[in-house]
Amino acid sequence: MTGPIAAIVLAGSRPGADPLLAGSGVPTKALLPVAGQPMLIHVVTALRAAPEVGAITILAQDSAALAAEPGLAGIADLHFATSGEGISSSLAAALPPGDDPLLVTTADNVLLTPAMIAEFLRGAVDSDVAVAMVERDVLLAHYPESRRTWLKFRGGWWSGANLFRLRGQRVLPLLDFWGRIERDRKKGLKIIAAFGPWLLIGALLRLFTIQQGVARAGRRFGLAAKVVPMSDPVACIDADKPADIALIEAIFAARGEAAIGRRL
């Protein structure tokens, strides 16, 4: 990568009521407070602190409401764009021209750190599509109480870490395909099956690793696709459920205590 990479934060609302918002008085998940401030603030702060990241765009149906959040005032090179209903179509419309790379994350990826961003972008070099993932043993060795959706392959079970690198307009066919299956995003086998019977059979029989499976899926679209294994177990802990938020706040508290210890 020769210069800073542009970043998009997906901060929209999915159809239907979000149980996390019940009784909160907050209009959208991105503004739900976690560890004392809205989720979105944590994510944007981490991105802005990463020297590899350039312009940041918040993508949401009601981008004006997010732009009015006081905690985002004064953050350099921060922009807002209005999305459509679907993640894939909205992201496709926001892709940079040509082959310029784009970093994508989500507003509920509240434990994101500059170190995670740097590790992911180093691992994503020379790819058209890269996906950050955490292997189950890495997570459960530290947070056995965490409940994730796992993809089972030879050599490990993997969970997504809400970090993606996309190579500009090259990925449009993949996003179009994803738009047709994203409703099943939490159903691992359905996602794998959508890429064809060989990939499904290979996953079921553990014939290949997840790196090999993702590379094979990418070739279907003429893309160099790779998985970037993340070393920090919290990279795959996002704020989907009340139990997630409780764990995230405990992790933030531990981070604060560690920082105090380093200063003493």
From TrEMBL:
InterPro entries in alphabetical order: MobA-like_NTP_Trfase, Nucleotide-diphossugar_trans
Domain MobA-like NTP transferase, residue spans: 25-137
Transmembrane segments: 188-208
Alphabetical UniProt keywords: Magnesium, Membrane, Transmembrane, Transmembrane helix
UniProt cross-references to Pfam families, sorted A to Z: NTP_transf_3
Recorded GO MF terms: nucleotidyltransferase activity
Top-level taxon: Bacteria
Secretion signal span: none
Protein name (Swiss-Prot/TrEMBL): MobA-like NTP transferase domain-containing protein
Gene source species: Sphingopyxis alaskensis (strain DSM 13593 / LMG 18877 / RB2256) (Sphingomonas alaskensis)
